[in-house]
């Protein structure tokens, strides 16, 4: 077996290229590095982004000989060395994530600053399935994979919602070299690092889609549990191409793996944007205007730590964060903040019925008196919003 030669695209940051850390992005089988384009644009404000293609995919030449995933990992290191070498972070999808696991378990693992394993696992499917697919592609070409891939790759509704992105992926499948695709399948049939992932010492994130038919939530949980200290993320309404379906979320997760990339001003700006989105401009403007020399540092602390560090994390969506926040506030009896976050929960997409269910749940775990007080606060918020709506409607009619 020989090590393939991989080709890719390096996108430098706008500032000093030599000072920016290198991030390598690995694709999934049957796709090219073009599917990383939106996430790469987000990440290129912080990293030198190096996207590579698998053998016979995109820019990389077809494979002349069989290879293993360890060979692909070695080829990634050779590509990194060709653009300057040194330390790097890595994020990969499906077979790209498996390559990342190989990197972390190889001597190159000492060079890895961070690893994001996306929609991937220490073993992907069974050997027979991969060998059958290799035979099918050799007999009928990659065109025979389009229907199955459209079902595996995307969450239900993604095709009609984003036909541009879906067609980009499926059309690209038709351009893949059949024999190289088959060789990738055969390499995956021999791939199994389940017994070794506990050896990974790199700062790691494990990311799966909630409706991914290839790597289930339970499989992602097991992988994360096996990798010491790993972070776990599940993306809502996401299939097997998380970097294409949720590029902004993936970019945020990857960037978060290297905290030093976020400057204090970045954290404050990001926190202020989320704070305004959740609480509303009017509330934030009032709080900012009311700040005194004695309270200004406290306002800054809230913006940076509550909103910049916690509410910006991609591990929970804002609906879930609102639900957790309401439960916590009711339990602690913080009634002014409860009213504020009832309105914020509505802004984050929770319905009044869902808010009532959350408060009903707190009656069991925080006590009936606390829930009773919370229902009173919510009733006042709903009444105020209804009155404001009626006023707006009356003004429109006149």
UniProtKB/TrEMBL annotation:
Gene3D superfamilies: AhpD-like, alpha/beta hydrolase. PANTHER family: 4-CARBOXYMUCONOLACTONE DECARBOXYLASE FAMILY PROTEIN, CARBOXYMUCONOLACTONE DECARBOXYLASE-LIKE DOMAIN-CONTAINING PROTEIN. This is Alpha/beta fold hydrolase. One of its GO terms (molecular function) is peroxiredoxin activity. It comes from the Bacteria. Residues 21-247 form the AB hydrolase-1 domain. It comes from Naasia lichenicola. Residues 297-380 form the Carboxymuconolactone decarboxylase-like domain. Keywords: Hydrolase.
């Amino acid at each position: 077996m020989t090590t393939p030669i991989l080709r890719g695209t390096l996108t430098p940051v706008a500032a000093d290229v030599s000072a920016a850390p290198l991030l390598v992005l690995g694709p999934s089988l049957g796709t090219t590095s073009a599917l990383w384009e939106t996430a790469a644009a987000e990440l290129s404000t912080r990293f030198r982004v190096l996207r590579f293609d698998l053998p016979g995919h995109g820019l990389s030449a077809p494979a002349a000989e069989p290879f293993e995933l360890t060979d692909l990992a070695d080829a990634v290191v050779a590509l990194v060395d060709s653009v300057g070498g040194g330390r790097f972070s890595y994020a990969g999808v499906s077979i790209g994530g498996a390559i990342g696991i190989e990197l972390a378990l190889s001597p190159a693992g000492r060079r890895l600053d961070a690893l994001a394993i996306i929609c991937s696992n220490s073993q992907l499917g069974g050997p027979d399935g991969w060998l059958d697919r290799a035979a099918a592609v050799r007999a009928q070409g990659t065109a025979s994979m389009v229907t199955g891939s459209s079902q595996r790759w995307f969450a239900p509704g993604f095709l009609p919602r984003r036909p541009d992105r879906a067609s980009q992926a499926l059309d690209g499948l038709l351009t893949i070299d059949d024999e190289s695709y088959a060789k990738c399948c055969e390499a995956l049939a021999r791939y199994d690092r389940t017994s070794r992932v506990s050896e990974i010492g790199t700062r790691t994130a494990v990311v799966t889609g909630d409706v991914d038919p290839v790597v289930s939530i339970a499989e992602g949980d097991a992988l994360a549990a096996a990798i010491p200290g790993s972070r776990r993320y599940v993306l809502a309404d996401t299939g097997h191409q998380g970097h294409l379906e949720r590029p902004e979320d993936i970019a945020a997760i990857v960037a978060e793996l290297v905290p030093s990339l976020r400057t204090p001003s970045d954290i404050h700006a990001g926190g202020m944007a989320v704070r305004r989105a959740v609480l509303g401009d009017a509330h934030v403007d009032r709080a900012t205007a009311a700040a005194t020399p004695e309270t200004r540092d406290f306002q800054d602390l809230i913006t940076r730590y509550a909103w910049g560090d916690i509410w910006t994390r991609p591990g929970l969506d804002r609906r879930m964060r609102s639900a957790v926040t309401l439960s916590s506030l009711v339990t602690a009896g913080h009634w002014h903040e409860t009213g504020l976050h009832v309105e914020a929960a509505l802004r984050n997409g929770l319905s009044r019925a869902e808010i009532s269910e959350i408060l009903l749940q707190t009656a069991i775990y925080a006590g009936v008196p606390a829930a009773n007080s919370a229902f009173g606060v919510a009733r006042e918020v709903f009444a105020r919003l209804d009155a404001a709506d009626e006023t707006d409607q009356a003004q429109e009619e006149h």
